[in-house]
Amino acid sequence: xxxxxxxxxxxxxxxxxxxxxxxxxxxxxxxxxxxxxxxxxxxxxxxxxxxxxxxxxxxxxxxxxxxxxxxxxxxxxxxxxxxxxxxxxxxxxxxxxxxxxxxxxxxxxxxxxxxxxxxxxxxxxxxxxxxxxxxxxxxxxxxxxxxxxxxxxxxxxxxxxxxxxxxxxxxxxxxxxxxxxxxxxxxxxxxxxxxxxxxxxxxxxxxxxxxxxxxxxxxxxxxxxxxxxxxxxxxxxxxxxxxxxxxxxxxxxxxxxxxxxxxxxxxxxxxxxxxxxxxxxxxxxxxxxxxxxxxxxxxxxxxxxxxxxxxxxxxxxxxxxxxxxxxxxxxxxxxxxxxxxxxxxxxxxxxxxxxxxxxxxxxxxxxxx
Length: 369
Ligand SMILES: [Zn+2]
Ligand SMILES: [Zn+2]
What we know:
- This protein is 27% helix and 25% strand.
- It is built from 11 helices and 18 strands.
- Helix 5 links the parallel strand 11 (190-194) and strand 12 (214-219).
- Helix 4 (169-183) crosses helix 10.
- One zinc ion (ZN) binds at residues 56, 58, 82-83, 171.
């Protein structure tokens, strides 16, 4: 694999308006700024001035430390960042709906548009090996001054939401929203969330707006537990441990929760989510990687429980979520604990990799103030 662009040093001179900086991830726990030409939008493409680009757990897991990702998570040395939000500065020929000046969120995978998954709006699982390209993985992403995007991948960002709100709609909040829609959430449910990283916190924030009265969160990091408490997103924030199932049962009169949302990918946390769910309850797995061990008969079948798998979301559901965020006055940027300029992108990734933070954003212009 080759890393694209030419490394930026303190002596690098930029040609105004035609050159830009972009961050690439060599796979050794660093982020490097490289020099690139500002792209020119082609047929049904737009050029975005980047405003906010948030870092995702999967960037750290599959690219930053080591290039572990395969297939859809195979990193091809491009500009990183798959949670971009910005403003269109130039619309290429053939654009039919979006134009210069529009504030937009980018669905983070550009699909072929013609396979069954794309036609359902789930470009995440586009089956075309040739045309499925994720921003920040197989095509240039948002950690740059400008981003080239396809018009069909865009969703309008309403004025009520900031760009940093918008950056989290596709991957973080979208993933959580889709998982909650799959298991069905209402005010009667007591919900357990395992893993209080950005997706877990997003799930908790959405559960609150859906009327959930009792939310329990489990995480190994004290800082994350504290953040969940400080934001009022967890009624009980419980440190990870071997007694977790018993602790959740004790909080629910011995029954367990109606719904569990697994956001960690950790084997023990997954088993906890399954076992701490009450009979007839539902569990959704959102955390990536790893494995799980449980006994199908006592842990699942005899309790009439259902496990759902969920992967990101569809572009129409993203539009629906944006509308609801405005209605609910729910601002995803509240989960952002740290903002960095593009020049400090290496610090941003290092902090995210440490886990001692909420969501980390690389910001531009007014989003940095
Ligand atoms: Zn992501
Ligand atoms: Zn497709």
